[in-house]
């Protein structure tokens, strides 16, 4: 088993897709190890997306990610990082394969409904950013 970190972004919450996405998580065989509903501060978002700080979309992305509540979750499954990336689809919903969460629900390349870690190391860092040990089961 391995872990990934996921978020339901502000558009996913605002457009009432939380239930659909949690159902998909369980249907895809993930175990929910930890979950919380919270709003990121602008500083939190800047820290979380630090790797993108040189990219032109960084400031807009951080403002967007702190604009409303999100769901953050740590998930466990065999091949968790890659499996979740397959379930969510390409960053730009116009390029996301049919049936993926971004193809189904995303508004735009920025407001693309869900986050997923891109490696096992980043998954561990992202989980530690959001959860204390006693919040993971
Ligand atoms: P990913 O979420 O598919 O891993 P990344 O390249 O890691 O995509 O980018 C992080 C987030 O930044 C994306 O999910 C999206 O919200 C936003 N983003 C990425 N590229 C663009 C862009 O070209 N314009 C606006 N927002 C972008
Ligand atoms: Mg990424």
Automatic annotation (TrEMBL):
The keyword GTP-binding does not apply. Signal peptide: none annotated. ATP binds at residues 9, 57, 85, 91, 102, 112. The keyword Magnesium applies. The active site is at 115 (pros-phosphohistidine intermediate). CDD domains: NDPk_I (cd04413). Major role in the synthesis of nucleoside triphosphates other than ATP. The ATP gamma phosphate is transferred to the NDP beta phosphate via a ping-pong mechanism, using a phosphorylated active-site intermediate. This is Nucleoside diphosphate kinase. It comes from Leptospira perolatii. The lineage of its organism: Bacteria, Pseudomonadati, Spirochaetota, Spirochaetia, Leptospirales.
């Amino acid at each position: 088993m391995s872990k990934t970190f996921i978020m339901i972004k502000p558009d996913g919450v605002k457009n009432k897709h939380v239930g659909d996405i949690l159902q998909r998580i369980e249907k895809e065989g993930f175990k929910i190890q930890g979950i919380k509903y919270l709003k990121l501060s602008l500083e939190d978002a800047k820290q979380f997306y630090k790797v993108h700080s040189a990219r032109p979309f960084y400031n807009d992305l951080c403002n967007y990610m702190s604009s409303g509540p999100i769901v953050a979750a740590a998930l466990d499954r065999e091949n968790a990082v890659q499996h979740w990336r397959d379930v969510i689809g390409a960053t730009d919903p116009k390029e996301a394969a049919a049936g993926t969460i971004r193809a189904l629900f995303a508004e735009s390349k920025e407001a693309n409904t869900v986050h997923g870690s891109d490696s096992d190391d980043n998954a561990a860092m992202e989980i530690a950013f959001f959860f204390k040990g006693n919040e993971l089961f």
